[in-house]
């Protein structure tokens, strides 16, 4: 198996395992999520997700162009957005009641937005220059 096939296999296993656990052990999964997403674990999650994104991104960019990556990111974003829509009434008020749109909050994740912007710029460069 090549690196993309291994990444896809890991993705498939995680999705199938999560789906099974949420279908048959939803109460225990909710308890686990509450424990894992406690504020004192956020730094560890940010580090783990960043490392995961860098590793997966590296292998993706070995095989895909920025245009192909952008199309896959759009697909993923639309799929994620669609899955979040049923929770709109719970999510939007929670977001609006916090300081998530403040400058300080933005600066905490500005590096993530900068990655999206860099990818978008590379896509435009590939397509038009």
Describe the model.
This protein is mainly α. It folds into two domains: 1-63, no CATH class; 65-129, no CATH class. 84% of the residues lie in helices and 0% in strands. It is built from seven helices and no strands. The protein is globular. It starts with a helix and ends with a helix. The model has no long low-confidence stretch (mean pLDDT 90).
- Write down the overall geometry: globular
Chain-averaged pLDDT: 90
Quickly give the structural class. mainly alpha
Termini Cα gap: 35 Å
How many DSSP-defined strands? 0
Give unreliable regions as ranges.
none
Order of helices and strands: HHHHHHH
- Taken together, the total number of domains comes to 2
> How helix-rich are the residues, as a percent range?
over 70%
The Cα radius of gyration reads 17 Å
Strand composition percent? under 5%
Helices, by number, come to: 7
Largest sheet: none
